[in-house]
Each structure stands twice: as C-alpha cells, then as structure tokens.
Amino acid sequence: MVLNFLEDKAIPRSLRQDIRRSNYKHSEPAKSGRVWRFGFIKNSGYPFAKSYSSLAEVLADRDLASLGDAYINFVYSLALSNRTGRSLGVKVKGSVLAQALRNAGLRRYLPSGMTKHALADAAEALIVYAWLSRVVALEESVRIITEAQEPAEGLTQLLVAASRKTIFS
User: Fold this and answer.
1) In angstroms, what CA-CA distances link 109 with 15, 127, 160, 167?
2) Cβ 62 vs Cβ 121: under 8 Å
3) Domains held by the chain: number
4) Beta bridge partners of 33
5) For 48, which of 16, 106, 127, 130 is 20 to 30 Å away at the CA?
6) Backbone torsions φ then ψ of 42, nearest 5 degrees
7) pLDDT digits (tens, 9 = 90+) for 74-94
C-alpha cells in the first residue's frame, strides 16, 4: 500500500519539506497509526513523537521520561480529584512508580542495577508513549487509576495496559 504522505496536511509543512529533501519512505500502516521508517508516529498530532522498535527502547528514553513525568502527575492528580471530589494537584513519588513498574513485570526489560529514579523514569516514558501513540487515552488512564483499590495499584494496571497495547515498528 503506497500512500502519498507528503501531501498529508496533518504533518507540519516544515517536516514534509525535510522528508522530501531526504527521500524517506513510509512503512505499511501499523495498528495504532502509520509509522514511517524515519521514526515518527503518524496521526499522533505531535511531530516530535518518534516510533520505537522495542519496549526496552521506550523504557530507556530519558527525553520521553521528562514529558512522562508531567503527564503522569496530571493523570494521577485527575484520578485523585475524582476519588476525593475536590481538585488536587499531586506529584507521584518515584518510589511508587518504580514499584508499579516491578509489579507490572516490566523490570526484566531494563538493565540490572538501576536506581529507583531510573525505574520511575522508565515507567513515565512508557505511559506517555502509550498516550502519544494513541493506544491509551487520557480518559482511560484516569479511569484505570480512579477505579483501582489503591492509586499505586492503578499505576501498575496502567503500565500493564500500556505495555500490552503498544505496538512497535
């Protein structure tokens, strides 16, 4: 299936021009949207969102973890606001995210000897990547955490959902 993605108005003009200059080709449509060989996720709406070839690659991306930090704090705050009935703004502790990553069975994809901070970064990277890839919506993330017995358990469930639904190129 050949698509003329250089005419796709969802792609910023400057990126289309870069693509034309470098003669990149696209791959077949993936389940969660088209992924081009040069590594951007089509239809994510975010030109910086690149594709990854493995779960381990996502978990190791520090830049993605930085965005994930803000995203997971927002999701967690919304979920706790739903539970309490009042607006809250909270930060998720790194130790809670690190434990959720272990409980989700994702620790095996990372090198040994990582700190709790690095494990928390990996959890943040996966959660925001699932959102950027449009496989786990914001509303679904909030619902998962809100409905869990404990918010920390909800983070584990969210990581499991993100790892199961994410498709790699």
Assistant:
1) 32, 15, 13, 16
2) yes
3) 2
4) 30
5) 106
6) -75, 145
7) 999 999 999 999 999 999 999
Q: How far apart are CA 162 and CA 158, in angstroms?
A: 6
Amino acid in position 46:
Y
Confidence (pTM):
0.74
Please indicate, yes or no, whether residues 67 and 126 belong to a single structural domain of this protein.
yes
Asked if 72 and 1 sit in the same domain, the reply is: no
Domain ranges, residue 148: 55-165
Name residue 29's beta-bridge partners.
34
Same domain, 139 and 75: yes
Question: Token pair of 143, please?
Answer: 């619902």
76 and 40 within one domain: no
Percent of the chain at pLDDT above 70? Answer: 73
- The alpha carbon of residue 112 and the mean position of all alpha carbons in its chain are separated, in whole angstroms, by 22
